[in-house]
Amino acid sequence: MSVSPSPPPPVRSEPSCREMDAFCLRYAPRAPGHAAVRDLCRLLYVIPSEDREARDAWVERCIAWLREPRSASGLHEEEEPQPLAASRLKLLVRVLEGERATRLALSRLVGAICAEAHGLKLFAQVGLADHPGFLSELTDRVLQRLLPAPPDPERLSDLLLLFPKPEDVTWLESLPAGSLARLLAMVGEPPPPLPDPGMVFRAHLVDALALLATRTAALGLDEEVRDRSPGMAFRASPFLRLRRTCDGVLARNAAPDTLRELETAVADCRSVTDTVTQHLEQSGLSVKLVYRLDSIRGGLDRMESIARVLGASPGEARCREGLALILHLLRTAHEERSVRELAKTHLRLMARTTIERVGHSAEHPLISTRAEFHSMVHSASGGGLLAAITAALCLFLDKLAMAPFFTGLLSTFNYAGSFVLMQFLGFTLAARQPSMTAAMLAGAMGGKGPRPGRLERLEELIPCLTRSQLAALLGNLSCVLLASVGLTLLSHHATGQPLLAPDQAQAVIDSLHPWRSATLAWAALTGVLLWVASLASGWMENFFVYRRLPEALAHHRGLQRLLGDTGAHGLAGFMLRHVAGIGGGITLGVLLAVVPKVGSFFGLPLEVRHVTLSLGSLALAGGALGAQAVLTWGFLAALLGILGIAALNIGVSFALALTVALRARDISSQESWRLLRWVGLRLMKEPRSFLLPPPVPPAPAASGQPVSAPAQTEG
């Protein structure tokens, strides 16, 4: 009779009680029952090396153990208290130093992962992907959020998915580089035939450098970039040298001298990129070009980070540089998956294409003398005169029995024609100034980082801007009031009747009541429309300059035959001076006329409240009802509503424009609040300087240049 063989012993996935107690007493004698030690014993008991899914699951469990919020400090007699993030990492390092078999098993796991994975996407593509368009990229990110792609173990970039939250970056930053270096040294030598992880990662980094150099050089040698870096021959372009330098880095496996040459080439490429960015303010911007420049900077920054890792000495220094690179990759990976970051990026790019030109196209004189103050008042008085006529025509059109389409069309011609005529005549409309003021203020603040003399420039600029706004407002309101009274008297003299019927005049007064009507809400809406019109003016001039339309007009053969060479150049200069005002005026006119009609089409009682036009309508209504009606509480409340309209028109438009301008110029919120606090202190200390210019002109600046902007008015 044959004897059946004995069954094999069962494969255990948990340590026995005796093994658990021995482990805890050895590595946590002061607290052998600590949960962190017992969980670590279970984690290290079985370390897989063959099955790929088992390896991935074990790595997730290990990171989850490291992320536990409970500290593992003070478990050993010789150990000093440790921070929360470092305590578990140091416990793991101490255990691996004492357990040779566990250390070898973990080395085999790391070697198996490195042997199968590819790191080119991780180091050369994460955070640097092309965005073909907002809608397509938005669709991809939403689908990725709803239905994530399956993991691909052959790509090291999937390891970033082990840190799904932005808070993980803060946790990784808190890990001590010394403990990480000791951990990598212990698990970085797997037994043959597994490859050395250090050499594998070095090869991935060198390959990523070559790919980044090829991509960045192609972007830097594009025609749009070359056209905006004049005076540089193609053969002398540092982007061309960048490609050749990285070929040398790849051929010599990142030798120290090749890395130094690479750093020099990257610095030269960054200098060209900065020159092109400065040139954009004169030659116009496009979203595509601005994004291309951002991509070039991102590629250069990534190449510098990789070069620092390759050039660092082995040990803690290299571990520190490698951790900085991983943190950067993790941040950009979170941004790539974020819909909010996508919207912020595209809004910033769109803002730059408009707000950069707003500060150039619509600069008005910065008032620093009494003569400039009076000149602004006179310019705004002309705007008030045209606004009074516009308000009278608007009320006249309301009395006509026409279809809504024709009423809206005539209202558009009325508004837009008035605003464009103001631009041609050099008049000023106060409610359109805040958006331009915000763009100039953000331009004076500049970009990121410290800039010498910034506060001194702002100390001179801000009071000049507030005086300009006050002078324009005074000129507009005073003249629109007088012109409306004059139109009423002229109507009485010509026809014996006022311009408005009594019921229409009373309806105007009631519509401007600050709390019995929605006039303040409509004033805020009008502030938004004023801001949109300012964006349109900036976009219009940017389009005009970027497409080089002034040069096209000046050298157009048909215009030269018709107007002569001097006339063609004069027309080009005229259009360059006024294209922003024309675009903004037409846009504002269309918005003021169309928005109420569109609202009524959808059943929404939308209206607009422009401060100058509203005061003109109120003055016409007062002239129609007589002096007794002007002294009633309803009329006085309507005057109070005019003040609210002025505050909301200017405040909403300025706030939106300043927010977009600061975002376009990458100015931090901390610096913005610092400026706001300084303005508040200066206003409390010297309120008069914000309202009226000093009686004596201020002394010129140290550079010999007066603090003022080009004397160019806007409509």
Name a few traits of the molecule.
715 residues, mainly alpha, 28 helices, elongated, disordered N terminus, disordered C terminus, membrane
Write up this protein.
This protein is mainly alpha-helical. Among the domains are: 14-119 and 155-193, no CATH class; 364-518 and 589-690, no CATH class. 71% of the residues lie in helices and 0% in strands. The chain has 28 helices and no strands. Helix 4 runs parallel beside helix 9 (177-187) and helix 7 (134-146) runs antiparallel to helix 16 (339-361). It is elongated, with a radius of gyration of 35 Å. It starts with 16 loop residues before the first helix and ends in a 30-residue tail after the last helix. The model is unreliable at 1-11 and 700-715 (pLDDT under 50). The chain crosses the membrane at residues 376-397, 409-431, 470-490, 520-540, 579-599, 611-631, 637-662. Residues 701-715 have a biased composition (Low complexity). It comes from Stigmatella aurantiaca (strain DW4/3-1). This is Adventurous gliding motility protein.
